[in-house]
Amino acid sequence: MWRRVLGDNYREEWNNSMEYNLLQKLKYASPLTAQEKHIVDFILNDPEVVFHSTAHELAQQTYTSASTIVRLCKKLGTKGYPDFQLKLALEYQQQPSPSLRTPDHAFTEQGNVLAAIDSVPYLYHQALDETRRMLNAPVLMRVANWVRQSARIDIYGSDLNYYLAQQACAKWNELGIAAVAHNGPNMHYLNTMNSSQFILSFVISHTGENSSMIEVAKVLNHKQRNVIAVTGNNHAGLSRHCDETLLTYSYNEQLRLSKMSSMISVLYLFDMLYMASISDNY
Question: What are the HTH rpiR-type domain coordinates in residue numbering (predicted)?
């Protein structure tokens, strides 16, 4: 198909206009974001994937977005993804070096595990970068000040979020800061909280629509407690009942990857607050 599309006129235009070929640009392009670098590495590992994939399909394979793919193509000097496909196809079929051509592989369990060696650090890096990008520094500083002033920290979360709450609390407890994780609304505790103590509460829900977490936030808000939503959706019900919101990130197109990204994002937020506590206590 690609050989039919690439005529002599286009071939001549390409040879005359490009100072560096596209494969060279892919290898040495800079500066690139972490997402763009991952896409470049993915393409260099198997250039033919570009010929058989739309921008959306390539985005799914690289855990990025179609807009990121198009942005990278323009950064490399092409007009967009279709232009990038054509130019790469022309150059690739002229390549004399067999080392640039990747043979077909049968995907095995071992192959998937080896792919994860690169994919997992990339997903971690992406989650950290995106969480940092969404950070509101004044809000984070305000929450850090509340942590310093608090007599006790409560963190509410269900399922995986309860495990994350336990991790955050364990770190604060090591510093001598009272912190307790809760896996749901304990109405007796919520209704008998010591009103003279400054108790800071975090409520974790990635969707922001967990009904039990919203109930916790409602009760605490009614009691005029300081409540922080830790969520990926600041327009959801949870944030409406909290004083501040710390935004988390997750990769939305794959449920299992979304959980991984969300977990890293939540840990990053709590670790920043924990490190602020360390500087205060030591």
Answer: 19-95
